[in-house]
């Protein structure tokens, strides 16, 4: 009797469902089994110790790749102080016109707390010069003038800042003003600031401004000129080799903060320190650590055997699984012991198997961050069992039973139709 569609079949699962469950269980067990394998390959080198900083939160990031080499409370909510102005600059550069002449409003001129350019209502100055004042001398009044001109209002400009933060993946950040004044709704974290800074450094003019030690800005249609000096002491004094940015920040609640960047040997690093007892020393400690301890490492070699897969109906029962390409990353020495790999591949194969046949992939991770991945392929051909292998097995049985070769040939002959 035919079973109706949808009729229950007891507690037995369909074959496809069983296959999916078995495959998932195999992948999970293989991942768990191999996740610690790389720890054995890369023990922590002697003397590899992460740096110690006084900052409550700190991050060291590779400017090119975005990879994190050091993290201390990187996702902890902190006040950014004037580091806010990096995002202010991003919006001004992307939505404003640098040669536009801004007429200073009474609202912008009224800003007097902290570092200011001492703007006066009715004065005229270009967006570019306001931007220089904001980034070099950290002028709080200039950011308000920028926001009103580029965004139409300070509120609209702040909305643009928050929208950009989301686009960049700075999900732990919210801005309530353009200059970093204290506000319960104004917060970020060290990781987000590193992400925002890395993005900003891709802009040539931003790069140029944040590495400027001093410059003179001129007011439009006026004799007024102001020479401004960079608040970043590392940059201003040129005391650190390769230093090339980016911004300081200080308020009573945020404490002393600094984002510093430096380039050596083609590698650019971004150090973020928040609420620090000595922000310059902390930044130097992180940068030194990055330049001395971070190196290029092959965490997976091309052709490296990762596992062996069972092969059904093959001349041999298993086939080696190898990496199709190398995986190379920059890592600090003390991070090597924390790298794990996840192997994901099919549970088995059926002959014939061709060398180079893709069967899965291997993913390398540092904590929750993916470092790289590569395809896994079969390392050799595995032919399907044929007449010769059958004859050899038959001969082995015959020899074991003491029968003659003729009996073996006869036995093989009569078995041929079932092949």
UniProtKB/TrEMBL annotation:
InterPro entries from the UniProt entry: Beta-lactam/transpept-like, Peniciliin-bd_prot_C_sf, Peptidase_S11, Peptidase_S11_C, Peptidase_S11_C_sf, Peptidase_S11_N
Binding site for substrate: 247
Lineage top rank: taxon: Bacteria
Database matches in SMART domains: PBP5_C
Pathway annotation from the record: Cell wall biogenesis; peptidoglycan biosynthesis
EC number, as in UniProt: 3.4.16.4
Residues annotated as catalytic: 82, 85, 138
Keyword terms, alphabetized: Carboxypeptidase, Cell shape, Cell wall biogenesis/degradation, Hydrolase, Peptidoglycan synthesis, Protease, Signal
Residues in Peptidase S11 D-Ala-D-Ala carboxypeptidase A C-terminal domain copies: 295-384
Transmembrane segments: none
Matches recorded under SUPFAM superfamilies: beta-lactamase/transpeptidase-like, Penicillin-binding protein associated domain
Molecular-function GO terms, alphabetical: serine-type D-Ala-D-Ala carboxypeptidase activity
Reactions that this protein is recorded to catalyse: Preferential cleavage: (Ac)2-L-Lys-D-Ala-|-D-Ala. Also transpeptidation of peptidyl-alanyl moieties that are N-acyl substituents of D-alanine
Family from the record: Belongs to the peptidase S11 family.
Summary of the function given for this chain in its UniProt record: Removes C-terminal D-alanyl residues from sugar-peptide cell wall precursors.
Cited PANTHER family: D-ALANYL-D-ALANINE CARBOXYPEPTIDASE, TRAFFICKING PROTEIN PARTICLE COMPLEX SUBUNIT 12
Name listed for the protein in its UniProt record: serine-type D-Ala-D-Ala carboxypeptidase
């Amino acid at each position: 009797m035919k079973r109706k569609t949808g009729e229950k079949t007891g507690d037995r699962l369909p074959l496809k469902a069983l296959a999916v469950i078995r495959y998932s269980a195999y992948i999970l067990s293989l991942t768990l089994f191999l996740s610690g394998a790389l720890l054995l390959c890369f023990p922590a080198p002697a003397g590899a110790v992460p740096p110690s900083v006084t900052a409550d939160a700190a991050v060291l990031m590779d400017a090119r790749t975005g990879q994190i080499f050091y993290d201390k409370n990187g996702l902890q909510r902190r006040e950014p102080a004037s580091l806010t102005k990096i995002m202010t600059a991003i919006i001004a550069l992307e939505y404003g016109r640098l040669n536009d002449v801004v007429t200073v409003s009474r609202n912008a001129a009224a800003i007097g707390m902290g570092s200011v350019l001492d703007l006066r209502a009715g004065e005229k100055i270009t967006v570019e010069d306001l931007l220089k004042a904001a980034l070099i001398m950290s002028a709080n009044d200039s950011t308000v003038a920028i926001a009103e001109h580029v965004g139409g209002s300070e509120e609209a400009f702040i909305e643009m800042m928050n929208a950009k933060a989301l686009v960049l993946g700075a999900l732990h950040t919210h801005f309530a003003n353009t200059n970093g004044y204290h506000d319960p709704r104004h917060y970020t974290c060290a990781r987000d600031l590193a992400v925002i800074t890395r993005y900003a450094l891709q802009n040539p003019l931003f790069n140029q401004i944040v590495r400027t030690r001093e410059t003179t800005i001129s007011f439009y249609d006026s004799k007024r000129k102001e020479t401004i000096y960079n608040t970043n002491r590392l940059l201003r004094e040129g005391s650190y080799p390769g230093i090339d940015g980016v911004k300081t920040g200080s308020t009573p609640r945020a404490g002393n903060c600094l984002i510093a960047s430096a380039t050596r040997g083609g590698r650019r690093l971004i150090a973020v320190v928040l609420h620090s007892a000595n922000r310059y020393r902390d930044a130097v400690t992180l940068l030194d650590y990055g330049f001395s301890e971070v190196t290029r490492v092959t965490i997976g070699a091309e052709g490296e055997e990762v596992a062996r897969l069972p092969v059904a109906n093959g001349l041999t029962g298993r086939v080696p699984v190898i990496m199709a390409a190398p995986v190379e990353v920059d890592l600090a020495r003390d991070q090597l012991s924390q790298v794990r790999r996840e192997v994901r591949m099919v549970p088995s194969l059926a002959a014939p198997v061709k060398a180079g046949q893709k069967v899965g992939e291997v993913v390398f991770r540092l904590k929750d961050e993916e470092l790289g991945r590569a395809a896994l392929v079969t390392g050799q051909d595995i032919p399907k069992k044929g007449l010769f292998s059958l004859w050899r097995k038959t001969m082995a049985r015959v020899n074991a039973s003491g029968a003659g070769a003729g009996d073996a040939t006869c036995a093989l002959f009569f078995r041929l139709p079932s092949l």
